[in-house]
Amino acid sequence: MKNKHIYLLLEIIKNNGNVKRLTHEGLRFSEIADLTCKVIADNYAEYIEDNIVLTEIGTQLLSTLTEDFKERDKNNWIIKENKSKIKKIDKDFIYLPNLKELSF
């Protein structure tokens, strides 16, 4: 697994976040489960009363990885959605609707 995936998982554990961030990175849920087991086996996180929390080693690793992977460019915080984007039309274009498609 990439260090970025480990960084994101540690950040999710620290902030009690959602693993959907990892699915946006292209990981499947089975890979997220394997990564979680690896993080726990490497003693970066542990189970405490049905919760997963960072250990001291995990907190140190997170602060180290934060320097490399934290997104500082605010333009990348929100992913652009192109599915709903419509193409630009001329300012001289006149739209005439199809009368058969209109219903009042």
TrEMBL record:
Source organism superkingdom: Bacteria
Official protein name in the record: Uncharacterized protein
